[in-house]
Specification:
This protein is an alpha/beta fold. The chain has one domain: Rossmann fold, CATH 3.40.50.1820. It contains five helices and five strands; from the N terminus they run E-H-H-H-E-H-E-E-E-H. Strands 1-2-3-4-5 form a five-stranded parallel beta sheet, with helices on both faces. The radius of gyration is 15 Å and the shape is globular. It starts with 14 loop residues before the first strand and ends with a helix.
C-alpha cells in the first residue's frame, strides 16, 4: 500500500488545497481526470493545488488507471477499516505532517472515507495555523475535531448511515458525483 511509503518534502506555499479520498488503487495516489479538472477550476495558483491524492506522493506521469467500482469499493472499505490501526495510522500521520509543514493555510476537501483518514491524521493535533475542511459524502466514525462542514447529497445512500444529520444536503447528488456539482464548486471557492 502506497501509504506505507516514506513521505516527501513538499515545496512551501502559504496556502494549499488538497483532495483527500480513499485510494481506489492502494498502490497509486493519482487523481482521476474529474478530480484534477475540479481542482483546476478553482481560483488558486498551480502551486497551491496538489494534484495527487493522499498521501500526496509524486507519481510518474502515467495516466490514472480506472478501477472497477466493485474493486474500488473493496479497496476503500479496507482503508476505512485500517485507517486507525498501525502501521497505516503511523504512516498516514507522517504524510500529514509533511504536508502541514509546507503551508500556513490548508483547505482539505474530503470525499467518502477521506474523512476517516483525515480524522486519523488530525488525531495527533498536528495542523497548520489555518485549516478548513469540507467533507463531501462523509464516511467516518465521527465528525472531525476541527471546524468543518459536512455535505451529503440527497441520493447518497453510502454516506447516509454514517451521518444522517449533516450541515447541508445537495439535491440530486449521489456518492460518486459531488465534484460535478456547481454548488460544491461554489462552497470550495468560498473557503478560498
Amino acid at each position: 500500500m502506497i501509504v506505507l511509503s516514506p513521505p516527501i518534502e513538499h515545496p512551501y506555499n502559504e496556502r494549499k488545497i488538497v483532495l483527500m479520498s480513499g485510494l481506489s488503487d492502494p498502490e497509486s495516489c493519482h487523481l482521476s481526470i474529474e478530480q484534477i479538472s475540479f481542482l483546476e477550476k478553482l481560483n488558486v495558483t498551480p502551486q497551491e493545488r496538489i494534484l495527487t491524492n493522499f498521501p500526496y506522493l509524486k507519481e510518474p506521469q502515467a495516466e490514472h488507471q480506472k478501477t472497477s467500482l466493485l474493486k474500488a469499493s473493496l479497496n476503500n472499505g479496507r482503508q476505512y477499516l485500517s485507517a486507525g490501526k498501525p502501521p497505516y495510522k503511523e504512516s498516514a500521520i507522517r504524510h500529514w505532517q509533511a504536508l502541514v509543514e509546507s503551508c500556513e493555510e490548508l483547505i482539505v476537501v474530503t470525499l467518502s472515507c477521506g474523512l476517516e483518514i483525515f480524522n486519523v491524521c488530525c488525531s495527533t493535533g498536528i495542523q497548520p495555523a489555518k485549516l478548513k475542511v469540507l467533507a463531501l459524502g462523509p464516511v467516518a466514525r465521527k465528525r472531525p475535531i476541527v471546524p468543518h462542514q459536512l455535505v451529503r447529497g440527497s441520493r447518497d445512500f453510502v454516506s447516509l448511515p454514517f451521518f444522517p444529520k449533516v450541515d447541508m444536503i445537495l439535491p440530486k447528488v449521489g456518492h460518486m458525483n459531488y465534484l460535478e456539482s456547481e454548488t460544491v464548486l461554489q462552497l470550495v471557492q468560498e473557503l478560498l
